[in-house]
Design brief:
The complex is a heterotrimer of chains A (595), B (167) and C (271). Chain A is of the alpha+beta class and 595 residues long. Chain A contains 17 helices and 26 strands. Among the domains of chain A are: 113 residues, Aldehyde oxidase/xanthine dehydrogenase, molybdopterin binding domain (Aldehyde Oxidoreductase, domain 4); 155 residues, 2-Layer Sandwich (Aldehyde Oxidoreductase, domain 4), CATH 3.30.365.10; 50 residues, no CATH class. Classes of the chains: A alpha+beta (595), B alpha+beta (167), C alpha+beta (271).
Chain lengths: 595, 167, 271
Amino acid sequence: MAEIATMTQEEREATLGGIGCARKRKEDIRFVQGKGNYVDDLKLPGMLFGDFVRSQYGHARIRSIDTSKAKALPGVRAVLTAEDLKPLNLHYMPTLAGDVQAVLADGKVLFQNQEIVFVVADDRYIAADAVELIEVDYEELPALNDPTAALAHGAPVLREDLEGKTTGVHGARKHHNHVFTWEVGDKEATERAFAEAEVTVKEKIVYQRVHPCPLETCACVASMDKIKGELTVWGTFQAPHVVRTVASLLSGIPEAKIHVIAPDIGGGFGNKVGVYPGYVCAIVASIVLGVPVKWVEDRIENLSATAFARDYHMTGELAATRDGRITGLRVHVLADHGAFDACADPTKYPAGFFSAVTGSYDIPTAYVAVDGVYTNKAPGGVAYRCSFRITEAAYLIERIVDVLAHKLEIDPAELRLKNFIPTEKFPYQSALGWEYDSGDYPTAMRKAMAAVGYEALRREQAEKRARGELMGIGVAFFTEIVGAGPTRNCDILGVGMFDSCEIRVHPTGSAIARLGTKSQGQAHETTYAQILATEIGIPSELIQIEEGNTDTAPYGLGTYGSPPPPPPPAAPARGGGGGGRGGPRRPPRRDDQPG
Amino acid sequence: MAKQHIKLNVNGKTIEALVEPRMLLIHFLREEMGLTGAHIGCETSHCGACTVDLDGRSVKSCTLFAVQADGGEVLTVEGMATATGLHPIQEAFIEHHGLQCGFCTPGMIMRTYRLLQENADPSEAEIRTGLAGNLCRCTGYQNIVKAVRHAADRLKSTSSEATEAAE
Amino acid sequence: MALLTEHGDEGRLLAGGHSLIPMMKLRLANPSHLIDLRLVAGLKGIEEADGAIRIGAMTTQAEVIASELFAAKVPILRETALQIADPQVRYCGTIGGNVASGDPGNDMPAVMLALDADYIARGSSGERAIPAHDYYRAAFTTALAENEVLIALRIPTPPAGHGWAYEKMKRKVGDYATAAAAVVLVMDGGACRDARIALTNLADVPLRAEAAGQALIGTPVDDPAIEKAVAAAVAITDPAADLRGPPEFRRHVAGVMVRRAILRARERAGG
């Protein structure tokens, strides 16, 4: 494309359709015609359908399971319980948080709608009929859905499989329903700050459990080729390579012989990061039966059994001077992880990036302690529309800053302006170990206040309140971490949280870039092509973007719940930088890329 | 239970099939006919991802048995484009970024199709209530509303062009 | 009829299907036979004769909304139908299905109480008219006999110039009512000559608030009269506690709905 080199900046941008241009999304042409390729659209010869019997109770012993009527139903091909998975050592699977999770309940159920039996049949109607025919005899046990009650002395033991284990993967466990304690900051210095403070505030804030609820539920098709000894799994996987690694660990099949494909995904928001019993059971069933097995959960299953978000019971405290200068922050969190800790946090951060809780403020000393707790609820704790625990942290600090403002009778915006990290302190080291590289928070705040006419709003509020009419003005100024972080800090199950991009330029001037990320609607096919177009000078229309197929995409940790596109564009930018002139390029070595 | 014979028109083609009476229309379309545009997002008839057009009505195909469509005319998203190109509604959704993951989109488009037959010039409020049976988890709806409004404009101007041409 | 008898408990009538089929999908209802009323003649149509309007039970909510006869003569029906579920459900759901099952969450029953409607039922021994106010016994328990089919509703045509309103509070568009009130009233020379008030989802049956209606009669429907009516209506409610709120909240909302409905009905009334 010799002409590009001679174009003006404007001509270049118009031709390339790169960063900053207005363009239509490449994905849309297939979606508006109903030609998306979602997992449940897949139909393979001989494919069977799987469905679950799920627990009625939140906590119960399973006395017996009678599968005889289901097995006798015409069209039923297999009925699996924990007993069938035990010889394969698959009745439990590792979670991304270093815990284990029951694939099928073994003698005990720990949350309502937990998986007990997996039925495989010729079609989904027969599978549902078979589910109805299975009788489970339960002995109900007291269920705990409150993390405080779960940690009480004498609370029922939930995880009998962890009996006697006083250490978990994140350190000491101080109670049979305790998962971990994670601490950061300077406890003593913070205690001193509070002891010496002119003013303190304390607020208990419960961020209730919510669910990411993507419109498409979780699903997979597992297909074992017994002749080649190779497993192919299509699924709603935000992190297909991680799924491949876990599938290899579970099945014993070498990763090189496992093909994981995440096609179009109908929304993820963090819900489709982890590995679910449905995936494992479909894989086992396919290995046993030698035919493809599809599993698609319904909405009730999705909401009640797959990874939730939040469920953080937080107590936040601020120490301050009388004129509103914050001198210390102290936070304790009871993190309700449900029956199994299946959160998808980097290994060193069992509470995610919650330590970003100093927010946008210059707080000299802080201390955070998070206690993870088991309860009789669905397992998880994922990053939903944010990075790991960021929303919880932002909510807490913004809320207690407001509480402090209320106590001191200082305007909440003013109090924030008084405590922002000053521009001259960047790069700034927070009291909880984060480096903030740059920022001009006071200017941003003042611009926002001007844009909404803040002073006028406060006057209006005062007038209304004087005559008994309520009017509230909400103020929040959050600084967040988006995506994950460098591999030296962030790994999941030992796999560094990096990502990769491999670009091949074809002789006739178009290109294909493959990445380890995975769009669930974030328009990577369009946006990555735009970034590459700007970097390497090939029009974005001629750059194909491919993700989701672990055979062809380089290893990456996928795409979670943050607003798109997070750091991985650094991958295409770095991969593409340096000019591109015809011919295939060797993919650059990128072990140290930010994830 | 014995299968029942049904005969219906789907996207302009006459189809005959034998179906179990309990087979839902959504499964018939997706699995028997391979028309996977309509999607399943819930089992409580809320989300509308399964919306198709049946005998001039927007219906949730997950809440109808295939046998209830016997003798009927079904239009799905696969039947919207013609040999000459995309339907203006499809183009409007692309133009105005009315989608992200695409899962709700066929249902949105099929409901929009009927909405604009009911009301060729809907206000924003009428668009929002007109789409009340269709949920989206990605977009926050703003661009969907824009797309529908622009589709209405496109369809009005095409029809007035056609009227002018005829006169 | 014969099919119903033949299949007994295992046979269910299928009208619009948008209450029954969702229950079947959750396997809360498991009939082995469905009798599709779509294929039965004589269950559609909206006609006025002798001062009453007969509505075929299989008339869809969409047809109710589109009816010019209703728009002119019984506009409360259109206002109510537009607040039921969503457009797709309204294309299939029928007015017969909405009134027949005794689901306390449905909206049309209260409106039928406020309109003094009759339900026409046909059984093996012929047809009978069941007044709506006699029809509802308890949740999902009605006066309809086994093997009887509700074939039509008959509404005495309200007088021209009557006032009307259906006010419904819900958590989101399409939800069942947290509380809802139907009001039909007639003014004459500045005073209320007739008033019927009925309530949705505030007990295990739709409620006809007799005393509340009486409290308006003879008055100019001014604030004191309205407050008496509201109090009388709230007094008969017995709302369940559910995700829509605790009973006290739902009673409070009931009062607000009754007040708003009376005010709008009064505005719309001639005389």
